[in-house]
Every structure is written in C-alpha cells, then in structure tokens.
Design goal:
single chain, about 180 residues, alpha+beta, four-stranded antiparallel β-sheet, two-stranded antiparallel sheet, 6 helices, 6 strands
C-alpha cells in the first residue's frame, strides 16, 4: 500500500510538472521558441516591483529588423522564417541567462535586461546590433543575407506603471 501511495504521488507530481511545462510552452512563439507577448505583462510587473523594492534598474531593448519586408518579398516567407529563427538564436546566445527575450510579432523583438545600469544597457544594445550586422543569415538554396536591426533602449525610471517603459521602448527605435 505504501508503494502504491508513493507511485500515486509521483504520478500526481509528474502530471503537475507536465501541466506547468505545457502552460509555459503555450507562452512561447511557435516559430522562434522565444517568449511571446503572453507573459510580457506578468514579467514586467514582477520586474517593476523587484526594481522598486531592491533599488536596482532594468532595461528594455526593442529590436526591429530593418527592411524585413524585402526579405519576404524577394526571397519568400520560408526564407523570412529562417531568418527569424536564426535571429532568435543570436539573441538568446548574446543575452544573459536571467534576461528575457520576447518575439513581439513579425520582425519585432523585445529583450528585458535585468539588474543593469543605463551604460550596460547601451553596451548590450550595441553588442547585439553588431552581432546581427556581422552574422550571415542562410536562406533557401544556400544563399546568404546580411541584415541590420534598429535597437531602442529604455531604462526603468522607478515609475510603477510598466506600460510606461514599454511605450518608451516601443518608441525608442524610431528616435
């Protein structure tokens, strides 16, 4: 009976783990496997609270692929998807483990840099911009494309409304 009870508890815990994993996976972009907008409000709210309580700063980097429409128009949507997948790899490989990388939609991405000062956020933005400019994006037929991105930086200023920093990040690439 004890063994059956232990097996039942293990099964229950495994079921919960699989349910949690499924919920997390539902919040991921299917193409890039990056976090989707679904978790953005929750994570931003948590970071605002943490920053206000701890006195630390965080930053948002808004990235937009320059002239991405040309990729889809000239090489097809399959090639555009390949580019986005490769770009997501560059973003995840060039951010810290505690940072968050989101695909906002289309060719727009958002990175939340935790515990960072403004100068560090600018360095991270420039590093990412340069990594992407230096990369070769392989598309169908073995062709290689070069891309650039526009990156905007917004640093949390202590305001409790996370929508404020999100608006600032959205506007920053166009400034």
């Amino acid at each position: 009976r004890d063994l059956h009870e232990q097996v039942r508890l293990i099964g229950t815990h495994l079921g919960r783990l699989f349910d949690e994993r499924s919920e997390l996976e539902a919040g991921r972009d299917t193409l890039t496997r990056l976090l989707s907008r679904r978790f953005l409000d929750v994570i931003l709210s948590k970071e605002v609270t943490y920053a206000r309580n701890s006195g630390t700063k965080f930053a948002l980097l808004a990235l937009d692929v320059d002239y991405f429409k040309d990729v889809n128009d000239n090489w097809g949507h399959d090639s555009g998807d390949m580019v986005l997948q490769q770009l997501s790899t560059i973003l995840t490989e060039n951010t810290r483990g505690g940072d968050y990388v989101f695909r906002m939609g289309g060719e727009e991405f958002l990175i939340l840099l935790v515990d960072v000062q403004p100068a560090g956020a600018l360095r991270a933005a420039n590093k990412l911009r340069q990594q992407i400019a230096d990369a070769e994006f392989r598309i169908r037929d073995g062709r290689v494309l070069k891309l650039t991105v526009s990156v905007g930086v917004a640093v949390h200023d202590g305001h409790p409304d996370h929508a404020r920093i999100l608006r600032a990040a959205d506007d920053a690439p166009y400034a």
